[in-house]
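Case study 2.
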Amino acid sequence: MNHSLKTGFSFGLTSGVITTLGLISGLHSGTGSKTVIIGGVLTIAIADAFSDALGIHISEESEIKHNAKEIWVSTISTFLAKFVFSSSFLVPVILLSLDSAFIVSIIWGILLILIFSYILAKQQKESPFKVIGEHLLIVVVVLVVTHLTGDLISTHFK
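Prediction:
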């Protein structure tokens, strides 16, 4: 996989998983509304995917190392990865009860991060446990903080 494609894919996957899990966690505890969560996930899959793609585009341009084709490959692959991975969380939310969907979404997100982190560690010849541990720690922190934030909002603004 070339640098531009790898940049977009890895950023899109990671951002898609972390952002969407955080949103689901916060909205699950804050609203308990399937409709609100579906709307939030779709918003991330569209608006945040465009935002991240533009961010990668500008970041790659600012490095003054890449040609236009490489920049656009990073941009498009970021958008597509973010869109696909964020949208994948709609499946459990639509098909399952909200509490079950929340658990399945956490498992799905952790599985995606775990597999990608393992592959990344192997490519970089680093300890998979260290890389996976770092990345999963961030996932757990995001889940806890967004869940507590949702609880706080629910308690103070209902």
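Residues 34 and 98 are 6 Å apart (CA to CA).
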